[in-house]
Amino acid sequence: MLRYFESRAAVLLELIDAEMHGWPADLAETSGAVTTGAADERARRLAGMIAATLQVRPVLCDLLSAQAGVLERNVSTAVVLRHKQAALGIADEIAQIVTRALPKLDADDAPHVSAITILIAAASWPHSTPSEALRADQEAEPAIGNLLMSFDHVVTVTLSQTLNGLLARHKTRGAED
């Protein structure tokens, strides 16, 4: 494989791109029903659907957790640029899904939501999927288990709050106009 890629990190960045490829289509399929109800409720349902479609992609979540801190630091500028360009395409697809569900969000909000989604997933995944050693520690010391996060819960709540904050900002702007 290293004949075709400059490093193992480059292989893993390509794998992220491949893993992300089907995610927007799955999200679009499940989020199509998020068109009725109050905006805050649609935001909560959309956030839950985003979390669910990510949670069933453990390889993607594992790789996203290593992306910025490890993988992107161990490749050339050309490889990072190619990876980021692919990520922009995915972010645009996610942004379109977000604006279909929440049309009050503007062109600046939706890409922000895409970026926040990736950050939340990358940060919360390792904290919600303990290693074997940590699982053994949890059995020996049950209080350690209290530190374990629920990926679905963290992503849903944090993204829902982000979406509702953006919606509230638009409501405030509308009142000022």
Could you write a compact summary of the structure shown?
The protein is 73% helix and 0% strand. With 177 residues, it is mainly α. The mean pLDDT is 88.
Can you describe this structure?
The protein has one domain (8-176): Tetracycline Repressor, domain 2. Helix 4 crosses helix 6. The protein has 177 residues and is an all-alpha fold. It has helices at residues 8-21, 23-31, 39-55, 58-67, 77-101, 109-128, 132-140, 151-176.
Q: What is the CATH-assigned architecture?
A: Orthogonal Bundle
List unreliable stretches of 5+ residues: none
Taking Cα atoms only, what radius of gyration do you get, to the nearest Å?
Answer: 18 Å
Number of helices, counting only DSSP H or I runs of 4 residues or more: 8
Structural class, by secondary structure, is mainly alpha
Feature tags:
single chain; 177 residues; mainly alpha; Tetracycline Repressor, domain 2; 8 helices; 0% strand; globular
What is the secondary structure topology, with strand pairs?
Elements: H1 8-21, H2 23-31, H3 39-55, H4 58-67, H5 77-101, H6 109-128, H7 132-140, H8 151-176
Helix pairs in contact: 1-4, 1-5, 2-3, 2-5, 3-8, 4-6, 5-6, 6-8
